[in-house]
Amino acid sequence: MRSSRETSYEFFKASHFVAAFIFALFFFWHCDFRLSSWDYFIAAGIIYALCFLYSQIRMYVEYGINHRARLSLMPNDFIKVTIRGNFMWKPGQHIFIRFLGHGLHSLTTHPFTICSLPTLSNEDGLREMAFYIRARGGYTARLQQYTEAHPNASLGVLLDGPYGGIHHEKLNVCNRLLIITGGSGAGFALPLIEHFLILSTASQRHHEMPKSMTVVIVTRHSRTKIWFEESLNDLISQYPALSSSTNKLEISIHLTNDNDFDAGTNSSSSPSTLESKEVLETSNPIPPGKGIHLSPSLGRPNLSDLINKEISTPSTVTEQHQSLGIFVCGPPGMQQDARVAAGKAQVQILGKGAHTDGGVQEVYLHLEHFS
């Protein structure tokens, strides 16, 4: 059922609307005013109507109707959506966006993960939310076509949220952070990296804070690798004090085949791999002396090996309790692999008891489903 829903989502959604309408008609016809059935219908209708009206009123009252989204197409075909306003959010949160001016699609909302931090602008004191959207089908494909036809277009939007998000305390107190992203989830890593840079360059540093961050980016396309490196370079340039920090940031970008992420193996003779090898040799824009190590490679990473390496590596700090925070945003297959690997790691830690030779004693896992 899940695979059919993902491959034919538009048909899946339309068929369920039709089925729900037919069910309601036959339900009323079947009950036929028997006993007090209408009392239950009226009560259920009132409750549903109130919930619907509350969500709509909240959308209009909390953010208003004057926000506009700026659309632009990235070199890797991601759609960048930026919305400026006086609102707050936390890393990893997502928000529902309703794009106006697109006919019946103006009545639908779409969840996207926020790929920026709520930093105040020096110009007007507003904050800018950034989203990186990969067109898959349905409305996102239509949005990409619109952006291609209207570069740097501006659309009116209605906002609902933000919702979800990362356990903020875990993001701040875990000694080690492991960020794993796949596909369009690469944008999910940017605000987490910036949050780590802010903590690393803060003048008043707390004793319990992340000492290292490992970021793993998995993508099928070399253009996404180049885009991420450029975005990372722009981000690092905003923190000149990073060179004096003792914290460690390691980033590895894994290029896979142009085939589906969940299928196929790497072929050294394929044109996509040859293109990737060329990019691996020529693209590394991170300046030296910043405490950052960037290592591109080919092939899918072994998530179990990555997590085992993190929990078994002895710590260079003196805290007794070492913890690892794992944050994943990617395809369902990647999330399942991370879930299994984190569970095995936790069992391994429990089997060793309270002392793990300077390694990790606690594993925290967060899975982000939107991107």
Give your account of this protein's structure.
By secondary structure, the protein is of the alpha/beta class. The chain has 2 domains: 68-162, Elongation Factor Tu (Ef-tu), domain 3 (Beta Barrel); 168-368, 3-Layer(aba) Sandwich (Rossmann fold), CATH 3.40.50. The chain has 10 helices and 12 strands. It has helices at residues 2-7, 9-31, 37-63, 139-149, 168-173, 186-201, 222-236, 271-282, 303-312, 332-352, and strands at 68-73, 79-85, 93-99, 110-113, 127-133, 153-164, 176-182, 212-219, 248-255, 292-298, 323-329, 362-368. The strands form 2 sheets. A 6-stranded antiparallel β-sheet has the order 4-3-6-1-2-5. A 6-stranded parallel β-sheet has the order 10-9-8-7-11-12, with helices on both faces. Helix 6 runs parallel beside helix 7 and helix 9 (303-312) runs parallel beside helix 10 (332-352). The longest helix has 27 residues, at 37-63. The radius of gyration is 23 Å and the shape is globular. It starts with a helix and ends with a strand. The relative contact order is 0.11. Residues 259-279 and 281-285 have low confidence and may be disordered.
